[in-house]
Amino acid sequence: MSKHNKRYLSYLWVLLAIVVLSISAVGAQDESPLIVATQIDDVITLDPARSFETTNLTVQHATYDTLLEIRSDDLNTIMPGLAQSWEVSDDGLVYTFRLYEGTTFASGNPLTAEDVRFSWTRLKNIKGNPSFYVDAVASVEATDELTVTVTLSAPTPAFATIVTAPALSVLDSVLAKEHGATDAEDADVTDTANDWLTQNSAGSGPFILTSWTPLGEITMVRNDNYWRGPATLSGVTLRQSSDATTSLQLLERGDVDIYEDIDKDLAAQVQANADLQLVSGQTLNLTYLAISPDAKFELPLSDALVRQAIAKSIDYDGIINGLLSGYADRPPVILPLGVAGSDPSKRYERDVEGAKSLLAEAGFPDGFEMTIYAGQSSSAGIPNETLAAKIQADLAEVGITASIDLRPNTDFLTAYRAQELPFLFATWTPDYLDPSMWSDYFSYPDSGPAARILLNLPELAEIATQAAAESDPAAREALYVQYQDLHVAQASFVPLFQPQQLYAMGSNVQGFVYHPVYSMDFYAMSKS
């Protein structure tokens, strides 16, 4: 063969290699969407300034970015997000963030310090459920195009961690304003962007929200202009599926790729299927009983002895080992294991005779009647109907007769927030990873679950305030130990379990890593 022909063939091989690589590159960004069977029935809104449920955390992490991040592989280290660097003044009051240059939103608009100022000021002025996150923020200024200066009203050691919460996502202010968003002081009544932001996103994240159908689907498509480079997945669909058997059948047939929060009693079935994989993640979630101490409900619950009797009546081991197949642990109070101040040696233990004695001491030797309230979904893979029946049976053993009232999740949350439910169980999911994520919301009479059950204990609020403001780690942990002891004595929040979350998925799903705040990071995932 002549040198000319050899050279020609070499060119052909190079050309063929380029074509193959090009096809591979296109294929890597042209997969079918990832479909997740899960429960999205908690969604009320997907506006970052208004949403305060669980599903929104996953969606907002996929569609928006925050200035700082905490990643799955190191939950103790704050990493750069949209901000390449940040500084804190010596007095702890001023935070200065420097943004990366050249970052753009999915719309193509440049991301600037003004977008951060607008987003955080809007969050504060909307006065929605997540507005508490910026209570300590006195002002936010766009010092220049890429510099944000935040001044706090008091030192808040957890502020950098709070910045990682999806509620502090950065919105495209130009696009958001086009659809009725405002950061004005009266934004709580003049902002009209909620409907649009519940069906669309205005972020810089790797995916773009395209629709939400209540009790149906949430759909997202890839943001091909993502500043870190496009994701592999072409899109993600979260599909409502509350029936465990149906969800697993959909997965086995290949109609969905992931079944999130599977029933624990199905774990062995998943492990036995060579086409599936079971992945677990240790959550910082808490499924808890909330018991109002307020006398307005005209129930014996206002007596601490009665609340302590209820705490002693619960068969915690039966719930964890029987209903959860051991995939859970149990903290002492409303501070999960792994968080400063949480001491498992002080947790409640079952003592039926002790509970009966406390009821007799409180003047109720024959027990009393009440209602257990909860949402019509599941808690860590246990159908709430099953968990409610277990609690009902446990209470019956000490003489308390409880009826069960399960409501659609949105109705349950609305009633809970309206301070209408004296006895219930629910699950708390963190938005950022600091003890104040719990103490800020389970301590004060004007915020969070504490407000919802009309808990007003000044000494609890005082110790929570001291702990949140303490910058010395050892002193802070000591304060949280005191905080824990006050909660144990009060017995208004009784943890049932801190679950592991189980995911069943096809063997072709790659790159899944569990995160205790937003559960799934779709940007890192692919399907082979």
Low-confidence stretches: 1-27
Can you count the helices?
18
- Fourth-tier CATH superfamily name of the largest domain: Periplasmic binding protein-like II
CATH class of the largest domain: Alpha Beta
Beta-strand proportion: 15-25%
User: Could you say which overall geometry the principal axes of the C-alpha atoms support?
Assistant: globular
Residues in helix, %:
25-40%
Calculate the terminal CA-CA distance, rounded to whole Å.
41 Å
Written description of the protein model:
- With 528 residues, this protein is an alpha+beta fold.
- It is 33% helix and 23% strand.
- It is built from 18 helices and 22 strands.
- Helix 17 packs antiparallel against helix 18 (473-490).
